[in-house]
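Thread: flavin-adenine dinucleotide complex, take 2
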Amino acid sequence: MVYLSYGYQLDIPVHDLIEEFRLHPMVKRLIKGGQLLEYSAHLTPVAGINAAPPKLYGNGYLVVGDAAGFLLHLGIIIRGVDFAMESGRLAAEAVTKAHDLGKYDEESLSIYGKLLEGSFVLRELRTFRNAHKVLIDPRLYNDYVRMINNLLRRYFEVDGTPRKLGSTFLESKGKLTLIDLAKDAIRLVMNL
Ligand SMILES: Cc1cc2nc3c(=O)[nH]c(=O)nc-3n(C[C@H](O)[C@H](O)[C@H](O)COP(=O)(O)OP(=O)(O)OC[C@H]3O[C@@H](n4cnc5c(N)ncnc54)[C@H](O)[C@@H]3O)c2cc1C
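Output below.
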């Protein structure tokens, strides 16, 4: 079976990782005797605007918020509340205009598409439309994490050896080449 997180294959199912966390002695003692009252899950589409349905309005309907693909998932940032609120507001505006026309067919509701085009919602989502292609790279979650750990450990270790940032960095980069680092830096700066 394949378990995916950010389009990246994991060896361990996510629910096993959560179970391991829940049973960790530090956590277990904090939740001991607790009673489960509610649980839920919420999927966040990582492809952003690329995952938008082909039509955001039609005869008698408008699509807003996450359902419309208006979610930005940039690894450390998940942003969608403002897009959901603004697309909801624009949808209400479109419905009010359709109401004035006395019909709610695709043509009357098409104003929603125009309002979206003029809004920050599509502008911002389009700016980051390729972010998921950069963030899907497994190197970010393996080699770079190792590199940062090594760098910080070596740089701050007090063992009587003088450390310079440049040479410590070169010692810490593991199997990443300087070309990898340059290419990834450019891709991150261009897309995030
Ligand atoms: C872990 C996490 C952290 C996040 N952090 C942030 C953040 O810091 N900032 C930010 O801006 N955004 C954040 N988001 C994203 C944000 O939560 C969403 O973008 C936002 O909630 C989208 O609003 P929505 O109204 O489109 O959808 P939702 O909030 O998902 O609302 C949809 C509702 O429809 C209900 N529903 C679904 N199917 C049916 C059905 N068949 N019948 C009736 N009801 C149904 C659901 O139960 C839900 O209540 C985060 C998301 C997650 C998962």
